[in-house]
Design goal:
The chain contains three helices and two strands; from the N terminus they run H-H-H-E-E. The protein is mainly alpha-helical and 93 residues long. Helix content is 48%, strand content 4%.
Length: 93
Amino acid sequence: MMYRTINNDSERYAIIRAMDMLARQTNNETALEMWFEKGISDGDIDLETPDEMLADYIDDDKFRDVLDTFLCVMSESYKQGGLSVDGVNSELG
């Protein structure tokens, strides 16, 4: 078991929300499915979700898994499909 040297739950909640927002912008369906299965489940976060409802995601082990999954999703998105945000697509070709 790893012990946290810094207890900054509010930062972890903000990062969880940011990763979820970015992961949902992928144009890669496989990467999005990976996010929902191994990252943040679809429907777990919306604009009204209180931090307390996300407490399981900031536990060290789960947080590490979500970070790893986010990196995999972004890597797959970069390889194929890119991201689309507000009508702008990162993939040019």
